[in-house]
# Entry
Amino acid sequence: AAVQGGATWCGVARIEEALALRRAGISCKLLVLGYTPPSKIPEAIDQQIVVSLFDPDLAQSYLEFARINGGILKAHVKVETGMGRLGMLPKDVAPFLKSLRGSPISVEGIFTHFAQADEPQSDYTHKQIKRFNQLLAQLESADLKPQIVHAANSAAVFNFPEAWYNLVRPGDAIFGMAPSTQTLLGPDYLPALSWKARLISVRTYPAGSGISYGSKYVTSASERIGVMPIGYGDGFRRIDNQEVLVGGKRVRVVGRVCMDQCMLQMDAVPEAKVGDEVVLIGTQGSETISVDEVAARWSTINYEVVCGLADRLPRIYLE
# Structure
């Protein structure tokens, strides 16, 4: 979808993801933003996958594998401007780039990452941009500046247009998720993901019936209890006070969340039956449960919610 929408690059965290995209027929430029094991360098060269350079010693290992492979490894240099995670210090970048001249590593890009871009008036982000710009000016004067420059994640795309350079890295925004409560999306950004299941059981239990492990929930009267085939093994957290949608209404998750199933208190939807749709994230009728609502309930961020959806969940891609 990104490529069809006009993206010329796709960024991934690991080379395994890049290789999966290649196997799926994605031919655009692919950048691995995180760590690539040196043993994977021959595959990166063969599949035209661009890696990140954030440590000179690691780059030396890449050089050795590139020489053995006999090809050219394309790379982007990551600069540490204040994230405190990965990246070369600005003072080390120019000597490093000089050392790669004539080597089998072709540096075509340089980038950094912001720690506080989700805060629209962040002085810290302005300081990071200043450090990065100072380095870029030094590299340009020494004829060392790579062609591609990027820094802006989703939050910076909205809050710091001066950091767009000639490539941006929107992540959560392209899925219709706000980068933070301080950086909201406009009406054109719609949620790209919903999470749905179907009822696999609906039955009436008498008063005093224990529901799920430990009988933590006990029916106070005759109650209709439904079961959906989703549990913590699918990425649905094992916590209390959760809701889903059935028949356009909110129903409570009751009892302990199991690995593969959850139980639902169905009295609000007496017409519900086996096979009816259950919405964990998304809209049903006039009700909506957003990723942000789930994230707030789980005391986390929207990205962790969607990244936690298990591989075993079927994916249905809509046009």
Remarks:
- The chain has a mean pLDDT of 96.
